[in-house]
Structure formats: structure tokens, C-alpha cells
Amino acid sequence: MVWDVCSWRDMGPLIRLETTLTGDRYVSILSDHLHSFMSIVHSDGLGQFQQDNATPHASRVATKWLQEHPSHFRHFHWPPKSPQMNIIEDIRDALLHAVEKGSPPPRTPMDLLTALQDSWCEFPPGYLQTPVESMPRRFASLLRARGDPTRY
Fold it and tell me: Which domain of life is it from (predicted)?
């Protein structure tokens, strides 16, 4: 499993998760990687951090950490049961598609990590702008569906 961060114009690090993600491990990733990414990409503190409601993301320790760092970036509170709205799913699909097209296919976990990282770094400039710019349409769709699943 990997964790990633990106913005409208920048790809952040792709981090290999050695074990199951817990709230404490997630806070460690946020502290080690998210904070530095956001401080570089959004040095004005106006960046918004979006995550889904995965158990480690919604843990008490992660929620507390995000509440303790409000001056570094804003945390976008995600609607419950709406993973289809998260653009990271589209980005991950594109990443996996790029890895599947590669030759030879990854044979070991390390080969897979290398292929994922290579594909992550090869996304073209501006790739992220399309999914980010789709957010208003995604939210309008979610509102029309009254929180039920949407076509996204």
C-alpha cells in the first residue's frame, strides 16, 4: 500500500506503507510528509487538505493532529460514505493503469513500488488540474443525489 499527496500543480511524495495503516502511523505520515508538502506548495497557509473517511483518517489521534495544525493548511471535512467523490481514486486508477501498461510487469513488491513511483513521477505537468477542476461538478452531483452514490 502507498500513501500520496498532490495538489492542482504539484505531485508530492509517494510513500510506501510497510504495515497496516493505523491512526498513529497516519499521523506520523502527516507530520513527516504532508506538513512539508503543504508548507512548500501552499506557503500562504491557504491550501486545503482533503482525505476520505478511512478509519485511520477519522481516528481520534489523526483528528486531534489536524485540529492542532490549523495555521498550516485547512482541512476539508469529507462527507461520510462518499469515496467516489475523492479525486485521488481517479489518480490512483490512472497510476495503476500506467503500471499495468509497463513491461515487464512487476514481479515482486519492490518491483511494484518502483513501477508505481516511476509512473507517479511521469504524470504529465497539468495532469492533476482536470480532476481538481472537476470538484464543483462532483459536489453538485453529490448534492443532487442527497449524499447517495453518484456517477463519479
Answer: Eukaryota
